[in-house]
Amino acid sequence: MRGLVREYLDGRLSRRQFVKRMVALGVSAASARAFIAGFEPSPAFGEQVMELNDVTGGRVVAEMLRAWNVKYVFGIPGTNEVGFIDALVDIPELHYIMGLHEGPVVCMADGYARLSGRPAFVNLHSIAGTAYGLGGLVAAFQDNTPLVVTVGRQDTRLRGREAFLESPRLTTIPQPYTKWTWDVLRGEKIPEVMERGFKIATTPPGGPVFITFSKDLWKEKVDRAEILPLDRFRIPMGIHPDPKLVEVAARLLVEADHPLIMAGDEISRYGGMSELVELAELLAAPVVGEFITGHALINFPTDHPLYLGPLRPQLAYPPQIDVFLNVGGKMFSEFDYSPEHIIPRQTKVIHMGLNTTHMARTYPVDVALVTHVQTGLAALISEIKGLMTSARWNRLKERRREVENERRRWRAQLAEEARRDWDAVPISPARLAVELNEVLDPQGIVVSELVTSDHFLLRYINFHTSARGRTYVASSGGCLGWGIGAACGAKLAQPHREVALLVGDGSFQFGVQGVWTAARYDIPITIVIWNNREYQANRMALTRYGRRAVAAKRYIGSHLGDPEIDHVGIARGYGVSGERVTDPDEIKPAWKRARRANRDGKPYVLDVLIKRRFRDADRYGYETFSVAELAGRTRPGK
Question: What residue ranges define each of the domains in the chain, with the CATH number in brackets?
Answer without folding.
Answer: 1-41 (no CATH), 50-233 (3.40.50.970), 237-415 (3.40.50.1220), 422-609 (3.40.50.970)
